[in-house]
Sequence to fold (354 residues):
Amino acid sequence: MLVVALIAGGAGGVIGTFVTSSGGSSSSEDPEGQGPDINEPPPEAPERAPDSVAGVAQRVSPSVVSLRSEDPRIGGGGSGFVIEGDYVVTNDHVSSELEADGIIIEYSDGSSSGADVVGSDPSSDLAVLELEEPSEVDALAFGDSDEAIVGDEVIAIGAPLGLAGTVTQGIISALDRPVSPDGGDTQFFALQTDAAINPGNSGGPLVDMQGRVIGVNSMIYSMGGGPLGDQPVGSIGLGFAIPSTEAETVIARMVDHGEESTAYAELGVTYDHESTVVGAVIADGSDAVESGGAADQAGLEPGDVIVSFDGRRVNSGGELQAMVRDKTPGDEVEVEYERGGDRETVTVTLGPDE
Fold:
């Protein structure tokens, strides 16, 4: 049985949810394809081409950190990476498990620092921490995950099972996979990768061959290890990452405002996730369409099947949730739906209202 699992915790502590994926070609800022100017390899290290796996790992790894609790009795943890301003990016499901007892950041050279949570967004599975004693490492730069295509090479760096500094290589296996970081209704589009990601990789970077972060590792699909299929046992090559385009927006908001959540577009409906009908089926019941919400104002009703959103085919409720999340509150979009065998199109102004 396939299960979805959050990849928190060094040697244990796997929590239910997801992981990694992304890539991208050289940008105009990197005409020679060597990426941003980050950590120089140590002088004693054998020389490798900057755009090789070894070359990228040498330059990126010093800026990748491990997270653990101040309390040595508390297990679990995860990974993260340093960005501009002496901040560390990680997953919300990592920081939220550690915050109450204090968080320690450990660098690849063995030094460490305390850190405070600046902001968190569970619906994006992202958190930003501020370092108390920053180390002299270069900030990692974000790439453009929208430029990634299937087949691009990517590298994941983190601390799976507590093994800090682990480097794995793979490709972008798929784009726009709708995933749920909280195991609930919230879904967003993730990058999928076959780079090996395991518990402890959570919050670490997925980088392209220029060393730019194009994804934040968050979740994996895994085979169930227990009799009920509810015990994730590790990577089977199906990992997922939060795309850099989403991550940058959420991180900037948290750094600037310290917000614990971000306002996302809403349709104002409850979906029937058990339905086998192709499309997003609005659940039955009087409360399935939020009174006064975007769908209600557009005339949508329980039982309607949404088959197209802003010109894109809709295959499921989860896919539609991710499509809506990509929009901004107040956007007007065309929604095509079926009701009683008839197909209609309506313009919907996405909520929530200001």
Remarks:
- The two ends are 43 Å apart (CA to CA).
- The chain has two domains: 1-262, 280-349.
- The longest strand covers residues 166-179.
- Residues 10-29, 225-230 have pLDDT under 50 and may be disordered.
